[in-house]
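Re: your question from the hallway

Yes, I did run it. Sequences:
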Amino acid sequence: MHGTTILLIEVGALLFALGMLGRLGRHIGLSPIPLYLLAGLAFGHGGFLPLSASEEFIEVGAEIGVILLLVMLGLEYSATELVGNLRSAAPAGVIDALFNALPGAAFAFLLGWGWEAALVLAGITWVSSSGVIAKVLGDLGRLGNRETPVILSVLVIEDLAMAFYLPLITAVLAGAGLLGGAKALAVAVVTVIAVLVAAIRYGHAISNFVSVKDAEALLLSVLGLTLFVAGVAAELNVSAAVGAFLVGIALSGQVAHSAVQMLSPLRDLFAAVFFVFFGLSTDPASIPPALLPALGLAVLTMATKVLTGMLAGRRAGIALPGQIRAGLALMPRGEFSIVIAGLAVASGIEPKLAPLATSYVLITVVTGPLLARLPDYTWFKNFVRRRTQVRRPADPLPTTD
Amino acid sequence: MGAVRVRVEQTPLPGIGVRHDLVTSSGRTVGVVSHRNGRRDLVLYDVDDPDSCLASIPLTDDEAEALADVLGASLMLGQLSGLRQQAAGLLTEQIALPAGSPFVGRPLGDTRARTRTSASIVAVLREREVIASPGPSFVFEANDVVVAVGTRQGLDGVSAILAGDGDG
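Structure:
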C-alpha cells in the first residue's frame, strides 16, 4: 500500500476511535483528556496497536494543538480582564504558586532528579486545568456561585503566569542554563507587558485590521497570524505557545468572539491529537512503576490545591462551604501540565518524567471532577454544618449570675 | 417608595462573562450570569449558604425579554399606584372595555383619547398579561382592561369614548 493511504487509514481510525471515546466520556461524565491519553498509550510504541505511518503527521498536529489551546485561552480573556484581575487576586495567585509548585519541585528532588526536572515538575503540579474546571463549574450549575470568581481568578493568574513560565522552561530545557532562562524570562516579561498595553490601548485598531464579515477570511487570517507569531516566538526561543497566547490576548471584541467560534472545532481536533501524541511518546510499560509516586504526588498536591482554594475563598469573604467548594474545584490538572511535560519529554531530560506526568494528570483529572461534586451531597453539607456548629459553643458563654 | 436605591453588584467572571446580583429587602439574593456567547442564567441563591446558588435557570433571548417585560410592566403599575397617592387630583383607573365597544378590533389611535380627554392610556391588561405603554397602532380585543391616568373628568371621558358614547 502507498504511504499516504496507510496514513489516511490510521488517522481516520484514530480520530473515529477518539470520537467514540469522547462520547463514552460524556456519557459517564468524564473529561475526554484522560481517555485521549490512554488512547495514545495504546497506539504508541509498546502499546498493543502501534501506529506506523502517521506518527510524523500526529507530531505536527500535536504542535498545532498546543498553539490552538493557547490562542483560545488568550481569546477567552481580554487584556483588561487580565490586568484588572491581577490587581485583586495577586495574593491568591502567590499562595497558589507557593503551595502547589514547591511540593512538585520538592518531590522531584526527593526522587533524585536534577533541578531542570524539578522546575518542570513544579510547573506540572502548579497549574490547574482551566478547561476542565470551567466545564465542571458549568455542569454543576455553579457559575453563579460567589466562590466562582475566586476560582476563575486563580485560574487566570495561573494562565498568565504560564506566559512567563513557559519561555523560562523552554530556555532552560534548551540547555541555556539559569542565566539563559532568566534572559528568556526578561524577554517574556517585556513582550507580555508590551502586548497587554497595546491590547488595552489599541485593541480596537488591531481587531479592526481583521475583518469579521467574511468568516472564511477571518478563520484563515487569525489562524495564519497565530501560527506565524508562534513560529517566530519559537525561533526566538520564547516558546511557540506563549506567542499564540499573546495573539489571543491582542485580539478583542467582535473579532475575538467570532474567532472563538471559528477556532473551537479546530482546537478540539488538534488538542485531541496533542493528547494522543503525548500518550504515544510514553511507553505503557513505564506507567505501572510510576503509578505509586504519581498517586503520592497527586494526593499531596490535590490537598495543597484545596488549601489554596480555601485560603483564596476566605480572603474574598466566602463562608466555609464555599471555601471547600472552591478548593475541591481547583484540583484537576490537565492540558497545561501535559504541555509542560511535553516540552520536557522533547528535550529528553528525565526519562521517568513522562510516565509520572501521564499518571499524575490521569489521576487528578479523573478524581478531581468527581471530588468536586462532594459539597453537593446532603451528608457533606450536614457534616460541614455540624463542624461549624460544634465550633460555636467553644466561644466563652456569658455567665448567668 | 424607592427612597433607598437598590445596589446591583457587578462581578466579572473572566473567560465566561459577568454576573450581576442584588440582595432583596427580604434578604434573598438574585443574580443574572451573562455569558459572552449571549446565554444568560437567572440564579437564585441558597438561604442557608448564601455563597451557593440554589437554582440556575438558563433563559433564551425571548424568555429574558418576556421576563423583563413582565417585571417592567408590573413595576410601572406599582409606580402608578404610588403616583395616585402622591399627586393630588391625578387618578389611575382600570376601565374594562365594554363588550359592545366600537373599538374592539380597532387601533388605540382611533380613540384619540388623549387629545379629547387629556387622560393617557398607559397600559392594557389582556388575559393575565400586562401590555405596557401601548402605541397608537395597538389593536384592542374584547375583554381588554385599559389602565388610564388622568383627572376624574378625563377618566370619565375615556370610559365614555370606549363605551362608544363619546363619538360625536
